[in-house]
Request: fold
Amino acid sequence: MDILNRRAALKASALFGMGAMTGRSLIPAATAADGGASATPPAESGTRYGPQSATGNVAAVYQRAREVLYPICRVCPQCDGVACAGEFPGIGGLDSGMSFQNNFTGLQRVKLKVRPLSGNKQPDCSTTLLGQKLSFPAMAAPIGGLAVNFPKLTHISEEQYFDAIIGGCVDAGTMGSIGDIQSNPLSVTKGHYDVAGRFPGKVIAGIKPRPNENFISVIRLAEAAKAFMITIDIDSAGRGWMDASKSTAVEPKTVAQLRELVRSTKIPIIVKGIMTPDDALLAGEAGAAGICVSNHGGRVLDHSSATADALPAIADKVKGKMVILVDGCVHYGTDVLKYVALGADAVLVGRHIWRAAHGGGREGVALFMKTMRDELTAAMVLTAVPTVAAINRNILELDSRA
Reply:
């Protein structure tokens, strides 16, 4: 089936409820478009759906997510960017959607070696990042501008969304996040940081590449909220680049401008949107605490490389010299394992945790993250790695990657 036909079939499945799907993220194909709702998947204690709770399991959380997110997000069997290609603003990839799809296919090409005879019975999937212990190397990616990008999603406010993301991640032993959009008045942005302030030291503050004076004003909000780290998604300054004299501006950054931002605060700054070793080295030259290998979920430049393809060469240059984060279609515990083996210190989870928040609130986010952590632990058993520090490319079948 070609891409266009597959995309049409996926949309038809979401619209007419053709069949039922099984699996961790596969849920009955019902839609909220006509007010209908399919039955919640049966509880399956002990399966990869995760532990039972008041929310149910991950499949039940995703069932609810589909009901409230359709047609913005169809909660597809695999979140590969095909059905939503070009739906921007929205959740899809920009233009043809190939950058989003590349992230998915690039990660699928990475294969794991199975080594069950190692006697590795109780691996430790915890890690320490910038002095903070995490239950496993995964955190929430900053996602902001919900009211602008998804104006029809009115069942929860942005403040409630951030509370669910942060609270759920904290409950799972890791870090939550808040996102940003430069068009918001500072008073609205402050309201978001008021939520973050309820979780001191547990929040990633994502800030758009505003002109430096404007950016630093948001840094002060992050400092008051005791944010864990700050990310600047420099790739947002592509199509969103505007006249720097405007309050809603974003702009590309020079090394000198980045250095000014780094020196303006004691909070570690991570430069997000790095896809080449050269840019990683420039971020280090600016004094950044780390980088995030990211193509913005395929939402800023069409036909860019997969993050899984870009990561190894970057890690070869800067591993051990700065923190390396990565994002791109992180869904399962095995995805976390793959990215860490390719050179990341930790991953950021975007669309999937966004779904969990809309489908189950704080409890749904915690359930999703705990399930992914359990999957990582099981995968570490079968790949013979006792600790996160022991994960490396030796567990990968690298020659199987196209």
Observations:
- The longest strand covers residues 269-274.
- The two ends are 21 Å apart (CA to CA).
- The beta strands are 127-129, 132-134, 138-140, 176-178, 203-207, 229-233, 269-274, 290-293, 323-326, 346-349.
